[in-house]
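Narrative of accomplishments. A recurring question from our advisory board has been how the design workflow behaves on a single, concrete structure rather than in aggregate. To address it, we present the structure tokens for one chain from the evaluation set, followed by the sequence designed for it. No filtering or post-editing was applied between the two.
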């Protein structure tokens, strides 16, 4: 079993993932009753094991859906694993309906120690509804599967202006990352009320981009960034979500990005500047 999928070992392994809900063929059941099409289980989902945690963000798209999954190691120095646990891997895939589930192929970007990210095309992901109440999903990664639990913070809508009962993105944020060759880099971010993003880091890089609200009106936002470092310019595309601690409390913002050429990724915890 690869390091990228060790987190699944601590979860209940599930058999016949696609076998529920009328089988993988769609159409009509044996009794002649039409099987309804699958409904994408959008949301923020979490699973954990002795090796760490997995946060999975499932978003509807016109062609089916997109899934982003962030694997983290075990946090040992803080009660806030979302902010401090080591990022071990990132998975991203596009999903289309397949029987009574959604599946697709994508890319696994794994980080081991301080080495450069390793891109592994050919990732296969399957997402299917779990409990009838919709509080769990079945998540399969390269043939191994486990159950993930729904994060209720997904139901709090994102906003770019102050609004009761929403998660505000506009404002000033700071993130700290360990960057190969540069050590610890602190970046200051500003998000305007129109979604425009600007930033600059202690490593000399500057950023421009956007934070855009998604049409489903939930907690996730679309994020794009252009990074300029010396003479190099790179584009990044990804998703933003509320950051949560081990108790489910919102602590800043989580931003997950993949470089447009597929060769690297960034997972950042944005916090109010101290």
């Amino acid at each position: 079993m690869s390091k990228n999928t060790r987190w699944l070992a601590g979860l209940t392994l599930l058999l016949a993932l696609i076998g529920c809900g009328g089988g993988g063929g769609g159409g009509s059941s044996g009794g002649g009753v039409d099987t309804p099409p699958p409904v994408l289980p959008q949301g923020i989902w979490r699973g954990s094991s002795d090796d760490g945690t997995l946060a999975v963000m499932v978003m509807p798209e016109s062609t089916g859906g997109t899934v982003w999954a962030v694997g983290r190691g075990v946090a040992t120095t803080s009660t806030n694993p979302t902010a401090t646990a080591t990022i071990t891997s990132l998975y991203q895939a596009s999903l289309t309906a397949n029987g009574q589930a959604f599946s697709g192929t994508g890319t696994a970007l794994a980080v081991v120690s301080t080495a450069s990210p390793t891109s592994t095309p050919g990732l296969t992901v399957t997402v299917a509804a779990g409990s009838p109440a919709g509080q769990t999903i079945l998540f399969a990664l390269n043939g191994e599967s486990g159950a993930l639990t729904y994060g209720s913070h997904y139901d709090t809508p994102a906003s770019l202006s102050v609004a009761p009962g929403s998660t505000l993105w506009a404002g000033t944020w700071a993130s700290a990352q360990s960057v190969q060759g540069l050590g610890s880099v602190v970046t200051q971010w500003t998000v305007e009320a129109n979604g425009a993003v600007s930033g600059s880091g202690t490593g000399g890089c500057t950023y421009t981009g956007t934070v855009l609200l998604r049409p489903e009106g939930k907690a996730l936002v679309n994020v794009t960034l252009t990074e300029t470092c010396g003479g190099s310019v790179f584009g990044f595309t990804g998703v933003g979500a509320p950051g949560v601690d081990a108790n489910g409390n919102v602590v800043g913002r989580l931003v997950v990005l993949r470089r447009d050429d597929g060769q690297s990724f960034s997972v950042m915890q944005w916090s109010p500047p101290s």
